[in-house]
Write a structure and sequence with these properties.
It is found in: Endoplasmic reticulum membrane; Lipid droplet. The protein is an alpha/beta fold and about 375 residues long. Helices cover about 45% and strands about 10% of the residues. The protein is built from twelve helices and ten strands. The N and C termini lie far apart (about 65 Å).
C-alpha cells in the first residue's frame, strides 16, 4: 500500500506510553540539560580563544556532539574525489552528525547566530556561494539535503531544494536517527524551510541520547542525465539503501510545509516578485530562465550570482540590446555578461572581476532608477 503524506512526519513529540516513561525520566533529563548547557558555554569560550586548526575543529566538533547528546556511526567511506554529497533529512542536527564524521559543510537557508551555525557545521547558502565561488577551492565537501526539511525517515520526499547546480560526480549518503522515548523531529503548522526548528534542538539537550547512522554510498556519475534525471537517480539510490519509498510528495505538500495562511498562489506571487528583483539587476536574462533557477535556489542573491558567473547559461533577450537610448551620454554602463567559459586563475583576479561587475551593476541599476522616477540627480 502506498504511503500517505501524513505518515511521513511526526505530529507529536510522544507516541504510545512514551509520555509516561519520559515523566519518570524528567528529573534526570533536567539535570542532564543543566550539564549540557554548561558544556555549551565551554564550547562557546573554546571556539573564541582556540586557533582555527583542523585538530581544534575536530575537538570542538566532539564537544558539540557531547553537548547535544549526539552519537554518530559511519558506514562506508567518503570519496575524496566528490566535493558534493547529497543525503536525506531526518533532523535539524543532521549537519552536526555529518560534519563530525564526514567533515562536511551543510548549506541551509536558516538564519542562525554565527557561533551556533559554525558549531552545527552550517553555512548560509547564499553567502557561501557568493564567497566560495571566488576562492581557489572548497575547503570542505558540501552536504546538500534537497528534501527541504526533516521527515520521520519513513519515506523520501522529492528533491526540490538545490542551492546550485550539482556536478558530474556526487556521493549519496543515507541517514537514520534513533532516540528513546521522544520523536526527534515534530512538524508544526508554522514550520518553514527558511526557519530553524529551535524546539527540536532544545529537546536534544534533555534527551538521554540521539544515535545517528550515516551510510556513505558509492558515488554516482551524471553521464547523459540532465539535472532532473540525475536528482531522481540520487533519490532512488538513497531510498533503496534505507529500504523506504521514494515518494513524489514535496516538503511544501506536508501539513505545515508552508507558513500558516500561505497558499500556492502566495508562493507563485513570491516567486514572481523574486523574479522581478533579479531582472531589475539582469534585464537581459529571460524571465523563464530566472524562474527556473529560482525554483531551485529560492534565493535572489544566488540566482543573480549563477547568471553573472555563467553557472546557468542563457540567451539574452533581443529587446535588451535593441533599444539604445539617444545620445552618447546615455550609453549603458553595464552590459549583462554572456557566459564565456573563461574563469580567472587566481582568487585575486576573480575577486577583482567580481568587484568591477558589482560596481557596474550598481551604477546601471541606479541609472535606471533615476530615469524611471525622473529624478534631477547627476548620473556618474
Amino acid at each position: 500500500m502506498a504511503i500517505t503524506v501524513d505518515k511521513i512526519f511526526n505530529a507529536h513529540r510522544f507516541s504510545g506510553d512514551n509520555a509516561l516513561q519520559f515523566l519518570f525520566y524528567l528529573p534526570l533529563g533536567i539535570l542532564l540539560m543543566a550539564v549540557r548547557i554548561i558544556l555549551a558555554l565551554i564550547l562557546w569560550i573554546a571556539s573564541i580563544i582556540l586557533p582555527d586548526k583542523s585538530g581544534v575543529r575536530q575537538m570542538l566538533s566532539t564537544l558539540a556532539c557531547w553537548t547535544f547528546g549526539v552519537f554518530v556511526k559511519l558506514k562506508g567511506n567518503r570519496d575524496p574525489r566528490c566535493s558534493v554529497l547529497v543525503s536525506n533529512c531526518v533532523s535539524c542536527l543532521d549537519s552536526l552528525a555529518a560534519a563530525h564524521v564526514l567533515g562536511t559543510i551543510s548549506l541551509r537557508k536558516w538564519k542562525l547566530p554565527p557561533f551556533f551555525a559554525s558549531t552545527l557545521g552550517i553555512r548560509n547558502a547564499a553567502q557561501f556561494i557568493r564567497k566560495q565561488h571566488f576562492s581557489d577551492s572548497p575547503s570542505k565537501p558540501i552536504l546538500l539535503q534537497p528534501e527541504g526539511g526533516p521527515t520521520n525517515g519513513k519515506a523520501l520526499l522529492k528533491f526540490t531544494d538545490w542551492p546550485f547546480p550539482i556536478g558530474n560526480r556526487v556521493q549519496p549518503v543515507a541517514i537514520t536517527v534513533e532516540r528513546p522515548m521522544t520523536n526527534v523531529s515534530v512538524r508544526r503548522p508554522s514550520d518553514s524551510r527558511d526557519r530553524f526548528p529551535w524546539s527540536d534542538a532544545l529537546w536534544f539537550l534533555c534527551a538521554p541520547a540521539t544515535m545517528y547512522t550515516l551510510h556513505a554510498l558509492p558515488p554516482l556519475e551524471r553521464g547523459d542525465d540532465d539535472d532532473s534525471a540525475f536528482a531522481t537517480r540520487l533519490r532512488r539510490t538513497i531510498a533503496e539503501a534505507l529500504q523506504i519509498e521514494a515518494t513524489e510528495f514535496r516538503w511544501e505538500d506536508l501539513p505545515g510545509g508552508r507558513p500558516a495562511g500561505r497558499s500556492r498562489q502566495g508562493i507563485a506571487n513570491e516567486m514572481a516578485r523574486m523574479a522581478r528583483q533579479v531582472r531589475e539587476v539582469l534585464p537581459a536574462v529571460p524571465e523563464r530562465d530566472v524562474l527556473r533557477d529560482l525554483a531551485r535556489t529560492r534565493s535572489v542573491d544566488v540566482t543573480i550570482t549563477n547568471f553573472l558567473e555563467g553557472i546557468i547559461p542563457y540567451s539574452p533577450e533581443p529587446q535588451a540590446a535593441a533599444e539604445p537610448l539617444a545620445g552618447p551620454s546615455h550609453a549603458p554602463k553595464y552590459v549583462t555578461p554572456v557566459p564565456t567559459g573563461v574563469f580567472p586563475k587566481s582568487a585575486k583576479e576573480r575577486q577583482l572581476s567580481f568587484q568591477e561587475r558589482k560596481e557596474q551593476m550598481i551604477a546601471e541599476a541606479r541609472k535606471r532608477y533615476i530615469e524611471k522616477h525622473g529624478l534631477n540627480v547627476a548620473i556618474h
